[in-house]
Specification:
- By secondary structure, this protein is of the alpha+beta class.
- The chain has five helices and 19 strands.
- The protein has a 19-stranded mixed sheet that branches.
Length: 368
């Protein structure tokens, strides 16, 4: 009797599995048929995509193909007709459909949206304000919505993007291309990752990843990771000095940095840093070279009355001397008696303390 029951159970499970596979095969066949007749369905797809992308749009044409497990729609001559980017024209937009979720809920769900060849223009003001002024052929006459986190319909990928950044005080325009960005907030928070090749005047390249919640800078909470190669310190210190106090330096830097931010303030940070051909401002607009190489790993943490900085594997090499690998600790605190800076290290050369004091004087007592 027991053997008969197990046989029936096995037969039933097999029948269910076969039925599910048949239904899936039929669904895939219908979807492939729909892909083949996609150009004739442009009007219906235009309406559905307007709802899925949460942006009113019109299409000039459409093709379809398969990309792995997802059907892909190649939208031609896309024009947005509403929102802050109204009038934006995109020659080609690739949209991947989330097949399993769409079948399960019987409505269209997008897996990712890819835009290629977009040109973005922005300005950088003397007060450190950064503003996007033009995307493609659309001028931004109003600020992008802030104060809330708009829901993105899918992972948005920008490929072969050109960013033209105009520094208003100097009148210089820097062109960054090809920029690659991935933006997603379907989980309730923003996730942004990207690769930015820098112009020769600023350095080599940047890779970064950021996760944060909300759009209000004063309440920003999240994490940031940056991997920078061959940065030009003189150019970047002048640009970043409008946002946070930074010492004036000349030379090159390779850096791998991470930071945690709470309520708009950096709470802790760390990373690896290598500086080459480091020079400080001298007399008569001349630069004074102080080190051929400075390398170390650091950890910075905010404390109740100040901050603490620990440096490991510190090495300094100049034309005069070379430090052995050492460790260094800096602790800054503010009290009723004034400001205090405590310094301790496994190796310190007194001849280099004056130079170090100049650089440390540029470190802000707070990071916001």
């Amino acid at each position: 009797m027991r053997r008969t029951f197990l046989q029936r159970l096995r037969f039933g499970l097999t029948a269910i599995l076969v039925a599910a596979l048949v239904l899936l095969a039929v669904s895939m066949s219908l979807l492939r048929l729909a892909v083949a007749f996609a150009p004739e369905l442009r009007g219906q797809v235009e309406l559905v995509l307007t709802q899925a992308l949460q942006r009113p749009l019109t299409l000039g044409g459409m093709r379809a193909a398969w990309a792995g497990r997802h059907p892909r729609l190649i939208l031609e001559d896309v024009r947005l007709t509403g929102g802050p980017l109204a009038g934006l024209e995109i020659p080609e937009l690739e949209v991947d459909i989330d097949l399993l979720r769409s079948l399960g809920e019987m409505r269209l769900h997008l897996a990712q949206v890819e835009v290629s060849g977009l040109v973005v223009q922005a300005t950088y003001a003397a007060d450190g304000g950064l503003r996007v002024t033009r995307v493609g052929n659309a001028d931004l006459e109003q600020e992008l919505p802030g104060g809330s986190t708009p829901k993105l319909p899918a992972l948005v990928q920008l490929r072969n993007t050109t960013v033209r950044l105009t520094d208003l005080p100097s009148g210089k325009t820097f062109s960054l291309s090809p920029v690659a960005l991935d933006l997603d907030n379907r989980g309730g928070s923003y996730n942004l990752a990207g690769y930015v090749p820098l112009p020769e005047a600023l350095g080599g390249s940047l890779r970064f990843r950021a996760e944060w919640q909300g759009l209000d800078p004063a309440a920003l909470t999240g994490r940031l990771y940056v991997d920078a190669w061959r940065l030009h310190l003189e150019s970047l210190s002048g640009l970043l000095g409008r946002v946070v106090p930074v010492p004036a330096l000349r030379g090159f830097a390779d850096a791998e940095l991470w930071a945690e931010i709470e309520a708009g303030s950096v709470m802790q940070a760390g990373g690896r840093l290598t500086l080459a051909d480091v020079a400080l401002p001298g007399d008569a607009s001349r630069w004074r070279k102080v080190a051929e190489q400075l390398r170390g790993e650091f950890r910075w943490q905010r404390q109740a009355a100040g901050w603490e900085l620990a440096v490991d594997r510190l090495s300094v090499r100049s034309s005069a001397r070379a430090w052995p690998a050492s460790a260094l600790s800096l602790q800054f605190r503010q009290a009723d008696t004034g400001k205090h800076l405590d310094l301790a290290g496994s190796y310190l050369h007194l001849g280099d303390l004056a130079t170090a004091a100049i650089i440390v004087s540029g470190i802000p007592t707070t990071c916001t």
